[in-house]
Automatic annotation (TrEMBL):
<keyword id="KW-0547">Nucleotide-binding</keyword>
<protein>
    <submittedName>
        <fullName>ATP-binding cassette domain-containing protein</fullName>
    </submittedName>
</protein>
<dbReference type="GO" id="GO:0042626">
    <property type="term" value="F:ATPase-coupled transmembrane transporter activity"/>
</dbReference>
<dbReference type="InterPro" id="IPR050095">
    <property type="entry name" value="ECF_ABC_transporter_ATP-bd"/>
</dbReference>
<comment type="similarity">
    <text>Belongs to the ABC transporter superfamily.</text>
</comment>
<dbReference type="InterPro" id="IPR017871">
    <property type="entry name" value="ABC_transporter-like_CS"/>
</dbReference>
<dbReference type="InterPro" id="IPR027417">
    <property type="entry name" value="P-loop_NTPase"/>
</dbReference>
<keyword id="KW-0067">ATP-binding</keyword>
<feature type="domain" description="ABC transporter">
    <location>
        <begin position="251"/>
        <end position="469"/>
    </location>
</feature>
<dbReference type="InterPro" id="IPR003439">
    <property type="entry name" value="ABC_transporter-like_ATP-bd"/>
</dbReference>
<dbReference type="GO" id="GO:0005524">
    <property type="term" value="F:ATP binding"/>
</dbReference>
<keyword id="KW-1003">Cell membrane</keyword>
<dbReference type="InterPro" id="IPR003593">
    <property type="entry name" value="AAA+_ATPase"/>
</dbReference>
<feature type="domain" description="ABC transporter">
    <location>
        <begin position="4"/>
        <end position="244"/>
    </location>
</feature>
<dbReference type="InterPro" id="IPR015856">
    <property type="entry name" value="ABC_transpr_CbiO/EcfA_su"/>
</dbReference>
<dbReference type="GO" id="GO:0043190">
    <property type="term" value="C:ATP-binding cassette (ABC) transporter complex"/>
</dbReference>
<keyword id="KW-0813">Transport</keyword>
């Protein structure tokens, strides 16, 4: 049986800083299902990368203790041999892809591990079926939705057949039904094939009855085993009350359609974004939600009309459109154009459309609220996934645009961070009258903040609670 453990492990990214992980002693029992929780920035991704043998080779320094794979220092084991025992899924799946299609990606990974070429087709097919994407086998990965890309990365890990599977926020962009299906499949993998599974996740729903050990990583870098009772009474579904007001913003669309090779991707009839409210767009992975945002921001061709003050948005010059709609990308690092947190905030402050609202005092208060004040000198690409999301959201809010679109803004946020971000968004729309429309598979914790819900079903956009508006 493959064993993986740490003993009194301390780790830091820079020698002159406090350890991000402090005296970590952990043993993953073979053939067990384990869950890792903790606040954003506590070091969960760092711990997984240490267990996978990626750190300190590629970043940071172990200042005390060790990581052992089968009683050997993991750093001493050559990557080829290590990958046969431990496989890791990154928080951002795009960082793992080397090939153009899901089939080629899984085949590439198996080739690196020197699997028998005659066995590869069946192994690839089985892995793609495990995550439910056999129909996407030969599609371009870059054209898939974020959730579908996560499934491709997970299929690659499954195909590698490692004894220990480390998954960093594997369901962040996956719809609730697919999430539950994958959790059940992972438990079956653990029970029938003897795998050891270690998942980092902020969303605790669906884990009750699956998890053998629950570990909690704290802000001080210390780890403890937590009670499994934390996983009980997690709501399985969340419904949003329709609180949409009748006062609308100047942004609307009429008979909007997006097609690709005569295939209908999106159909949205007539709707106007409500004034000063927060809306959510829901729907399964691949339904067309991100495509819809790309149409609203004029990144792809469409038919019908998208208007601003009853004038076609396409007729506005790019600089004019940039003062109307802001778009928060699904991957936060794609948004950043500077190196440090402070530089990113100063750039947004320089470009804000309301310096009267976004004063230095308000920005400093917001940074403190989001627990970013002590990270101003940090490189944005070295932040945790949750910290990057908080910085991305604040940077866009500071621009003070009438319409803000956010694509999966809550991925990687713990419960408290989620509430902090939503409170900031709510105060922003209430005080400015601006509007926010977001795509999110995260629903828990949003109940008191969402004013209306649009759902993408069968490529058509509907307003829940008032079907006549979108049918």
């Amino acid at each position: 049986m493959t064993t993986l453990s740490t003993h009194q492990l301390n780790f830091t990214y820079q020698s002159d800083q406090q350890p991000i992980l402090n005296n970590i002693s952990l043993t993953l029992n073979p053939n067990s299902f384990n869950l890792l929780i903790g606040v954003s920035g506590s070091g969960k991704s760092t711990l997984l990368k240490l267990l996978a043998g990626l750190y300190p080779k590629f970043a940071g320094k172990i200042t005390a203790g060790e990581v052992l794979l089968n009683a050997q220092p993991v750093a001493d084991i050559v990557p080829y041999e290590r990958a046969q025992h431990v496989a890791m899924l990154f928080q951002n799946p795009l960082r793992q892809f080397a090939m153009a299609t899901p089939y080629e990606e899984v085949k590439f990974a198996l080739g690196n591990l020197q699997f028998d070429p005659n066995e590869m087709p069946d192994r690839i097919q089985s892995a793609l079926a495990f995550v439910g994407i056999t129909h996407l086998a030969h599609h371009q990965i870059r054209h898939l939705s974020g959730g579908e890309q996560q499934k491709v990365a997970l299929a690659t890990i499954i195909a590698m057949d490692a004894d220990i599977i480390l998954l960093d926020e594997p369901f962040a962009n996956i719809d609730p039904m697919a999430r539950q299906s994958l959790l059940t499949a992972l438990q079956k993998l653990q029970q029938t094939r003897g795998k050891t599974i270690f998942i980092s996740d902020h969303d605790l729903s669906g884990y009750d009855g699956l998890v053998d050990c629950l570990y909690q990583l704290h802000a001080n870098g210390q780890l403890n085993e937590a009670s499994l009772n934390l996983l009980k009474a997690q709501p399985t579904t969340v419904q949003f009350e329709n609180r949409m007001n009748q006062q609308v913003s100047p942004l609307s669309w009429q008979n909007l359609q997006v097609q690709l090779s005569n295939t209908l991707l999106i159909q949205a009839n007539e709707f106007s974004i409500p004034y000063g409210q927060i809306g959510i767009i829901s729907g399964p992975n691949g339904a067309g939600k991100t495509t819809f945002f790309k149409a609203l921001t004029q990144q792809i061709a469409y038919t019908g009309q998208i208007t601003w003050h009853q004038k076609s948005l396409s007729q506005l010059r790019p600089k004019q459109r940039a003062k109307v709609i802001g778009y928060g990308f699904q991957t936060a690092t794609d948004q950043f154009v500077t190196m440090t947190v402070e530089e990113e905030i100063l750039l947004s402050k320089k470009q804000t459309q309301s310096s009267e609202f976004w004063t230095s005092t308000r920005i400093e208060k917001s940074l403190k609220q989001l627990q970013l004040s002590d990270l101003l000198s940090h490189v944005v690409y070295r932040l945790s996934g949750g910290q990057q999301k908080k910085l991305q959201i604040l940077s866009l809010l500071i621009l003070n645009l009438p319409i803000l679109l956010f694509d999966e803004p809550f991925a990687g946020l713990d419960k408290d961070s989620l509430n902090q971000v939503l409170t900031l968004m709510r105060n922003y729309v209430n005080q400015t009258g601006h509007s926010i429309l977001l795509i999110s598979h995260q629903r828990h914790g949003l109940e008191n903040f969402i004013d209306f819900e649009l759902t993408m079903t069968n490529h058509k956009l509907h307003l829940l609670g008032e079907d006549s508006i979108h049918d």
